Structures are given as structure tokens and as C-alpha cells.
């Protein structure tokens, strides 16, 4: 029997309502024979939930021995959850899915059919619309992806979800990236391999609420840029260079003017403006530098990506 094993990895943070629905949806599909080409294994990750997610895990895993779970000592973020889930997975194929059914399980058979041919190492998905999302958020998101692709060499696709099915080879590649600042869209894009993209329309979550505020997303975007591009550092140098050039031209102009017209003392207001501008740019560049330094600092501490409270 060479039936392949598919591990379904589900990072969960306060998903006590959504998770049972999610599990039911998968079991339903299995009963209908839609997942016939594979055996299933579940890895649920409780990312320090404050509700009863862990009890839900315990309950489900008592009924179904194919369910394994990890519970973190606190909230470490979805990225850490994905990492822990991948580490615990044993399947030939692994798929990462959200607990809120925003990643339609109905796509699984198609993903399996692509990955089963052996032609692809990874079947990834992207949302083609951002229905049900505030318009400014969509606007910022689109700008972010455009910028990101210009300044980094990881292939980061607009609307790409973490919902993707991968072979063991890709899972191992991702696990080999042990960095602490895990920007998963960047990591998936960075590892490469043969990827097939599937598209779907946005689905709203079945229960509970999103964990992303606009501010959280903004910080996440900055983290992504710092993790996968050094362009802001180059920008700082270019800024500096331009400033030097301008200053040099000014010096010459002022020397020549003084020699021709003498030295009437005026121009203080403009001086103040220049000082403010230049010191502003300096602080900005220092901030950029500091951002990279801070990330380096965190990486060198070599802290674990997550800590386990309980697992099965
Ligand atoms: N999640 C997590 N840790 C967090 C935040 C979210 O494990 O700190 C999980 C969450 O339970 C869900 C998935 O990541 O399964 C996606 O989260 P959410 O639905 O809030 O994000 P959105 O779909 O709105 O992008
Ligand atoms: Mg969601």
C-alpha cells in the first residue's frame, strides 16, 4: 500500500468556535471520498489561546487518534505556529490551513491532484479579491506587495495565503530556515521550488474574529521588508550622498558669492530649515539602521521560536 499521508497543519489562536466546524468540514469531505488518494493526519497548534481552544483539541484528539496537537506557553504568533506544526508533521505532503474556513477545504482535491503528478513541489493559493476588507487596508496591501517585489529577491505574491500544500522536500527547506523573525510569505517565496498557483475568491471567516488590526498589519509589513530586503539601507546611503552633493554645490555658491558681494549676515531662517531637514533625514536613516540592528540582535540571541506547554 503506497497511499501517501497528508498532514493538515492548523495554527489556532482563540478558535474554540471555528475549530470544530473546520474539523467537521474535513471529515465530511473524507466521508464523501474526496480525500481518497491520501490518509490524513492533523496537527493543531494552540498559539497561547485565552479561550478553550486547548480543551477543544483534547476533546477532538480523544475521539480521533490521527489528531496531534501542540500548545504554546504563550502567544508566539501564527508564524511560530506554522513552524511548530511543520516540525510535528510526518506526512509526505503537508497543507497549512486556517481554522476559520477562510481557506476553502474544497480546494484540497485539486491541490492533491497537482501535487500527486510529481510535477510540482508546492501548490499555493492566492485570493483574487479582498471582499469584506476595509478599502484602505486593501490599498496599503497592494502598495506593500508592489514595493516588496521591487526590493527583495523573494517572490512575494499579492493575495498569497499561507494555505498551501507542499511535499516533504519543501517542508524540510522551510524548517531549515531557523530564523526568529519569520515572515512566512517571504520564506515560502524565498525557498523557491516548482510552485503551482491556484486562485480563489475571498471567503469570510465562519466564527470568531480576525486577529489582525491595521496597526498589527503595518508592523508586520515593516518586519517583512526588514527580513527580506536590505534596500532601505541602500536608500539611506543614497540619501546621504545626495545631501553631500547638495551641500558641496552650496559651499561653492556661497564662497563665490562672498568673494563677489561681500558677507552680509542674513539667511538665518533658511539655515534653520536646512538644519531641521538634514537632522530629520539623519534620524530617519539611524532609525532604519536601528531596525536592522534590532533584528540582528534578536537573531543572535538564538531564542527558541516557540515554547511548548503541552503536546500530544
Ligand atoms: N493565528 C495564530 N496566532 C496568532 C494569530 C492568528 O495562530 O497570533 C491563526 C488563527 O487562529 C487563524 C489563522 O492564524 O487560524 C489566521 O488568522 P486570522 O483569521 O485572524 O487572520 P486573517 O484570516 O484575518 O488574515
Ligand atoms: Mg481568517
Helix content: 40-55%
Major sheet details: 8 strands, mixed
Q: Which hetero compounds are present in the coordinates?
A: uridine-5'-diphosphate, magnesium ion
- Name of the CATH architecture of the largest domain: Alpha-Beta Complex
What is the straight-line distance between the termini?
A: 27 Å
Q: Catalogue the unreliable spans.
A: none
Q: Order of strands in the sheet with the most strands? A: 7-5-6-4-1-2-3-8
Order of helices and strands: EHEHEHEHEHEHHEHHHE
What structural class do you assign from the helix and strand content?
alpha/beta
Note the beta-strand portion: 15-25%
Which CATH class of the largest domain applies here?
Answer: Alpha Beta
What does the overall shape look like? Answer: elongated
Oligomer: single chain
| Average predicted confidence as pLDDT | 87
Count of helix runs: 10
Domain count: the total is 2
User: By CATH's scheme, which homologous superfamily of the largest domain applies?
Assistant: Spore Coat Polysaccharide Biosynthesis Protein SpsA, Chain A
The value of Rg in angstroms is: 25 Å
What can you tell me about this protein's structure?
This protein has 312 residues and is α/β, with parallel strands linked by helices. The protein folds into 2 domains: 4-214 and 305-311, Alpha-Beta Complex (Spore Coat Polysaccharide Biosynthesis Protein SpsA, Chain A), CATH 3.90.550; 231-300. The chain has 10 helices and 8 strands. Strands 7-5-6-4-1-2-3-8 form an 8-stranded mixed beta sheet, with helices on both faces. Helix 2 links the parallel strand 2 and strand 3. Helix 5 packs parallel to helix 8 and helix 9 (231-261) packs antiparallel against helix 10. It is elongated, with a radius of gyration of 25 Å. The mean pLDDT is 87. The structure holds uridine-5'-diphosphate (UDP) and magnesium ion. The site of uridine-5'-diphosphate has 17 residues, from strand 1 and helix 3.
Amino acid at each position: 500500500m503506497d497511499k501517501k499521508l497528508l498532514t493538515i497543519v492548523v495554527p489556532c489562536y482563540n478558535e474554540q468556535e471555528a475549530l470544530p466546524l473546520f474539523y467537521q468540514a474535513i471529515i465530511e469531505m473524507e466521508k464523501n471520498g474526496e480525500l481518497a488518494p491520501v490518509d490524513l493526519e492533523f496537527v493543531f497548534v494552540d498559539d497561547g489561546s485565552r479561550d478553550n481552544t486547548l480543551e477543544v483539541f483534547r476533546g477532538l484528539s480523544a475521539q480521533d487518534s490521527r489528531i496531534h496537537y501542540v500548545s504554546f506557553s504563550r502567544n508566539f504568533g501564527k508564524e511560530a505556529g506554522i513552524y511548530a506544526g511543520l516540525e510535528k508533521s510526518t506526512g509526505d505532503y503537508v497543507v497549512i490551513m486556517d481554522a476559520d474556513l477562510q481557506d476553502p477545504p474544497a480546494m484540497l482535491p485539486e491541490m492533491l491532484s497537482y501535487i500527486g503528478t510529481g510535477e510540482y513541489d508546492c501548490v499555493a493559493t492566492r485570493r483574487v479579491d479582498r471582499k469584506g476588507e476595509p478599502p484602505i487596508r486593501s490599498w496599503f496591501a497592494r502598495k506593500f506587495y508592489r514595493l516588496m517585489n521591487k526590493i527583495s529577491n523573494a517572490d512575494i505574491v499579492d493575495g498569497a495565503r499561507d494555505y498551501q500544500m507542499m511535499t516533504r522536500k519543501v517542508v524540510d527547506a522551510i524548517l531549515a530556515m531557523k530564523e526568529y523573525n519569520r515572515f512566512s510569505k517571504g520564506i515560502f517565496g524565498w525557498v523557491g521550488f516548482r510552485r503551482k498557483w491556484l486562485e480563489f475568491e475571498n471567503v469570510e471567516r465562519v466564527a470568531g474574529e480576525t486577529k489582525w488590526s491595521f496597526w498589527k498589519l503595518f508592523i508586520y509589513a515593516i518586519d517583512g521588508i526588514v527580513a527580506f530586503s536590505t534596500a532601505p539601507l541602500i536608500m539611506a546611503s543614497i540619501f546621504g550622498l545626495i545631501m553631500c552633493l547638495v551641500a558641496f554645490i552650496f559651499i561653492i555658491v556661497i564662497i563665490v558669492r562672498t568673494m563677489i558681494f561681500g558677507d552680509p549676515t542674513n539667511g538665518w531662517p533658511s539655515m534653520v530649515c536646512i538644519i531641521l531637514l538634514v537632522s530629520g533625514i539623519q534620524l530617519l536613516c539611524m532609525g532604519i539602521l536601528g531596525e536592522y540592528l534590532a533584528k540582528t540582535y534578536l537573531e543572535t540571541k538564538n531564542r527558541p521560536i516557540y515554547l511548548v506547554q503541552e503536546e500530544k
